[in-house]
Write the structure tokens for this entry.
Amino acid sequence: MTATTTEPPSLHTQLVLITGMSGSGKSVALTALEDAGFYCVDNLPPELLEAFIDLERSHEARKVAIAMDVRSAKSLPMLPKRLAQLQASDEQLQLTTLFLDSTTDTLVRRFSETRRLHPLSWHGDSAQRALIDAIEHERELLAELRESAMVLDTSLIRPSQLRSQVKELLGATQGSLTLVFESFAFKRGIPMDADFVFDARMLPNPHYEPELKPLTGQDAPVAAFLAAMPDVQRMQQQIAEFLAQWLPAMLRDHRSYVTVAIGCTGGQHRSVFLAEQLAKQFQQQWTTRLRHREADHWPANSGA
């Protein structure tokens, strides 16, 4: 009889760290991951990170999500270094850091609507910071952590959109680099999570064609209209050439994601068309994702 050996079970663990500004939607993101099968923990102190990972591995947990934020302000400065050491020493750990951000105006409005105090409202034993001062102080404390994370701007998206985007983005992080193409409207502000921003407002606008106005850049008549315009073709080619030139360098610099934002006036026709076309163009070489920020504002009779 030949003895057989059993390979020890793999301890590969997918760890998602959710952090970011208070009021930016971390609880929504954590719930989305819980629905996707992650074991989730909120407000874990950074000092307990390694011990928690070991504990979950002993329970054979493979997908874990942790929320950390400024509530652990005293130990938060050590977190970037601790994460870097963890990644360097643990080959079986797939770590993704997701940083949720929002504009200061949005955060002020959200805190005012809920009537909750900001976690950094109290300064010392009795002094209370103004809300805007607390938010700006939080930005300073989290600046280093934001630089090394995947950033998602939640200023202008609904909770249901945030849940979908979190699942899509984290489902795409298995590859070496994820390329996100995002269309947006300049009249509603530039996305805070954009690495590159391209302006399509000087291109021919389907908005002024009565039969095209209620449609979007996803619809065939609008796509045909724009594809026939030399300036549109030229812009698409130049954006593609720029990305083809610099994406390999960003990959060598250990970037795991790049967000390319393309804007037009209303975020409905030109920016949507270009984002769609570029995503198709790059999907053979890179993991690509599409995001149309203004989709909720498109006309109800749109064919998209």
